[in-house]
Amino acid sequence: MDYCRSVLAVAGANFRRLKRDARVWFIFVFTALLIHYYLRPVINYGIDTGTKAPIYIMELLFCSATISVKAPKILFYIGMLCLLCDAPFFYPLKPYIIMRSKRTAWCVGECIYIVGMALLYAAFILIVSSLMILPIGTMRDSFSGALTDMVLGTGKMPLGEIANIYPSAQFSSEMIRYLYPSGAMMYTFVSVWVSFSILGLFMYWVSLIRRNVVCGMAIAGALVFLDPILVWAAWPNNYWILAFSPVSWTSVEQLNIMAANHFISIPFVIAADALLVIFLFILILHTAKRISLNGFLTEEA
């Protein structure tokens, strides 16, 4: 029981710091503005034509693209890394927390904080995107309406004309044609949460080893920007290479339910996510028990 309290105390201390951290508030505000920017064409089209769109909209923000700036999910991943850019979270009171909680509880508490922060950020994207689509939102579990028009065109307005008047992010036409929005959103939310956690844990582990917060951020950022390169290299018959990027697993259109030649499946994502999270937890525990903290404490002093 004391161990659980120590773990929760470590995680809670990190969360309490967020209220006074302007960096965190800026990232959340900037993320909300990004969501508005990417959904605004859909909302404007729906208002102008009187068509609807489902409120289950998060999956549209995590579609793949071969150009980083055309993929909103890349910016969201960078936002997540910026939220954890102070890993391994040393601040003036941290030495006393480590002394009282012991290393194992401290380390587990930090990991729980990372997973909790990933959940908070993923939930924020989900809630804000659903709220912003409300002016044309519907509970109907179908993409038919504004999104179908913007992807396939209409009899009155061809696709090219819609694209010129309402330029939008790159949406997957296959996803909009064949999937239910609620199911796609549930998969996206869970996979985004876990992939955020994986990158955060990896960045934390690298920062512990290198004793350098910049090093962990740089390597994790490189993994994020690897996704558009892999998406480009995967077409047309090399989709198996997307298995090497957890960032790619969050895009529903990359699943094998969308095309027979796609490699990634839901069972694969579940197994790979679970193995990576467990493996990173073990690595972090092993590293934290053996690493000297003097370098970190000296830097903070």
Verbal overview:
The chain crosses the membrane at residues 22-39, 74-91, 112-134, 184-206, 213-235, 255-285. By secondary structure, the chain is an all-alpha fold. It has eleven helices and two strands, in the order ααβααβααααααα. The chain has helices at 2-17, 22-49, 72-83, 94-132, 146-152, 159-165, 173-178, 181-210, 213-234, 266-290, 294-300; strands spanning 53-54, 137-138. A two-stranded parallel ribbon has the order 1-2. The longest helix has 39 residues, at 94-132. It is elongated. 41% of the residues are buried. The model is unreliable at 297-301 (pLDDT under 50).
Task: Give the helix/strand layout.
Elements: H1 2-17, H2 22-49, E1 53-54, H3 72-83, H4 94-132, E2 137-138, H5 146-152, H6 159-165, H7 173-178, H8 181-210, H9 213-234, H10 266-290, H11 294-300
Parallel strand pairs: 1-2
Helix pairs in contact: 1-4, 2-3, 2-4, 3-9, 4-8, 4-10, 8-9, 8-10
